[in-house]
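= Tokenised fold =
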Amino acid sequence: MFRRFVGAVVVGVALAATSGCTVPVDAVAGISVTGDGHLLGVMMVCGHQIDGATLYVDSDDVDKQVTVGSWTADRPLTAGLATWPLDSPATGWAATRSLAPLTAKTSYVLYGWTKDDSWSSSSVFFTLADRDRLTPGKVRYANISDNGDESAITVSIAEFKTRACPNT
């Protein structure tokens, strides 16, 4: 996990150095499950907006970061919590790429974005084993500590709503 985080930081710094800008993060992505075990996307928007979300296979090789699902909200998500099922049609969401079957021993990443690249969300990394440990009402997301360390944690939806956007 640490290697992946350092790799992501290195890539981000390289992109920032060559592009002169990065997409600011103003939302937190997470996952949850329904009562019957279906995967839910969870997005806590902190203050601006998010237009959609993408789920892809995590890989150090950018050519192997295959998109396995992508969704666009009918209206931009603004400050607050949004959830939607990833494997079936959902009111207020359009699947721009329907969810492909997920496989064991594969690491996935869910993140949020805007159409104009003005805002993004933090990403949540997970495997099917991580999903299988979730229970309804719980959210897995990447928590960043005061000293900058990132770790995946699972909390209640109520706690996620209060902790995900610490500066709001």
About this structure: Residues 23-163 form a domain with the Immunoglobulin-like fold (CATH 2.60.40). The first strand starts at residue 25 and ends at 33.
